[in-house]
User: Which sequence fits this backbone?
């Protein structure tokens, strides 16, 4: 793992959250993107070398909507940049960690992603990110 790529924050109202984080960070988001396969719309803010990703569900059955319903708004995941996502998935499996998806899938911000089960990381959803080839 190379660095923290971003911190994902689940929000109910993306427009309101964009205004809040624009005020907090002193700059506006640089990108909004819908990830149909996950049922989310994302908004990215740059902060130094890292990013904040706001996530809002596009339907009541999306994982983010279910997260908010169960836990409320807040930190949803921490994403780590990796150089070789397939090798990192294998390494984590060998260490005994469960992955929610063992094959990388398309994610937001031009990334391939895979998620590690939060029960194996003290309740934190871990995302692995690599730039799309």
Assistant:
């Amino acid at each position: 793992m190379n660095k923290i790529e971003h911190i994902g924050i689940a929000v109910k109202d993306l427009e309101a959250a964009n205004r809040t984080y624009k005020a907090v960070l002193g700059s506006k988001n640089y990108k909004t993107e819908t990830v149909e396969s996950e049922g989310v719309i994302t908004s990215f803010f740059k902060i130094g070398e890292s990013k904040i990703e706001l996530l809002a569900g596009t339907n009541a059955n999306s994982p983010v909507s279910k997260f908010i319903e169960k836990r409320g708004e807040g930190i949803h995941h921490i994403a780590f940049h990796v150089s070789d996502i397939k090798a990192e998935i294998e390494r984590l499996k060998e260490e005994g960690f469960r992955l929610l998806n063992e094959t990388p899938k398309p994610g937001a911000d031009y990334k391939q992603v895979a998620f590690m089960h939060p029960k194996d990381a003290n309740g934190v959803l871990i995302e692995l990110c690599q730039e799309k080839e």
Notes: Strands lie at 3-10, 31-35, 40-47, 50-57, 74-81, 105-106, 111-116, 125-131. Residues 14-25 form the longest helix (12 residues).
